[in-house]
Design goal:
Radius of gyration: 18 Å
Bound molecules: S-adenosylmethionine
CATH architecture of one domain: 3-Layer(aba) Sandwich
Order of helices and strands: HHEHEHHEHHEHEHHEHEHEEEE
CATH superfamily of one domain: Vaccinia Virus protein VP39
Structural class: alpha/beta
Low-confidence stretches: 1-16, 266-286
Shape: globular
Number of helices: 12
CATH class of one domain: Alpha Beta
């Protein structure tokens, strides 16, 4: 059964997935099946600690939130620190997920937490729908610097394994230097939508940090962020085993937890070349460890 028949009535919040496009939904299903390695709670907490969440009324996004582990833990911590947090404070927290069933699950988990915290069912549903945006972060996500914190575990998938239909959508919006892997495209977009002085805490596969194919990406990112923390993770405990994966078969990735700190300087975008330039006040420690 296609996602269309299973989820044609999904509430989509701010943005609209094209539910009339079966081919697009099948492509999303294929990417989700290949990339849905959900992060285990201790690793999520470790990254939220590194981001010092929830101090300071900052805006946090998980750009590929899956079934919502980062969102749920961030929300729980926010509610523990500020039990009477109003809608505005709660909506500082958001997640994007383009796979409708995963987005529905994330919304349900957020909704449950809000009800437990004393919200009415109706309020909780509305907030959860706004908080979890069911749409493609690469084609519909923000391009301007609007987040103080970005947390999550972006999809890792080499370009050749991305369905053609999605590749054609991404090619016009993803710069060449970030086109080799979905992870590169997400890293680039995350850095671009980070406010000056913001921080990004992610689980990623390690290959972008050293592989020759990531050199141009590292050179670009290194203009705007520095690696503030880097730690190897154990693939057997960093991820929650997907239901489709047999037990005892850890994912074939070498995960790391990485904290990128925005250099906090002003940079200007060269529209002609599609690259970013900045004036630096201090020598950058490039994202090129
Ligand atoms: C590695 S999982 C991580 C989920 C969650 N952040 C976590 O750590 O548990 C990556 C998720 O990204 C989603 N995804 C892949 N490409 C996406 C895109 N272009 N826009 C939004 N979500 C996407 C996948 O469906 C998958 O659920």
């Amino acid at each position: 059964m296609s996602l269309l028949s299973a989820h044609s009535s999904i509430a989509t919040g701010q943005y609209q997935l094209d539910l009339s496009n079966d081919a697009q939904l099948d492509a999303i299903e294929a990417v989700h099946a290949a990339t849905a390695l959900y992060t285990s709670e201790p690793v999520v907490d470790q990254l939220l600690d590194l981001l010092d969440w929830p101090t300071g009324g900052r805006r946090l996004v998980d750009p590929s939130c899956g079934n919502g582990m980062f969102l749920v833990r961030a929300l729980e911590r926010l509610l523990e620190a500020t039990p009477n947090a109003g809608d505005q404070a709660l909506l500082q927290l958001s997640g994007w997920e383009f796979h409708p069933p995963a987005a529905t699950e994330a919304r349900q988990r957020v909704e449950t937490k809000l009800i437990l915290a004393g919200r009415s069912a109706g309020d909780a549903r509305k907030l959860a729908e706004k908080m979890v945006i069911c749409a493609d972060f690469l084609t519909k996500g923000p391009e301007q610097a609007e987040f103080d914190l970005i947390a999550g575990n972006p999809p890792y998938l080499r370009r050749l394994r991305v369905p053609t239909l999605l590749r054609e959508l991404y090619d016009p919006v993803v710069p060449d230097y970030a086109g080799a892997d979905l992870l590169h495209a997400f890293l680039d977009r995350c850095v671009r939508c980070l406010r000056p002085g913001g921080r990004i805490g992610l689980v990623t596969a390690d290959r972008w940090l050293a592989a020759a194919q990531g050199a141009a990406l590292r050179a670009e990112l290194g203009q705007r962020v520095a690696v503030a923390h880097l730690q190897r993770l154990d693939a057997r405990s960093a991820f929650i085993r997907a239901k489709t994966r047999a037990s005892g078969t850890p994912p074939r990735v070498h995960p790391v937890a990485v904290l990128l700190a925005g250099l906090g300087e002003r940079f200007c975008r060269s529209k002609q070349r599609g690259t970013c330039r900045e004036r630096r006040d201090q020598p950058a420690q490039a994202a090129n460890p």
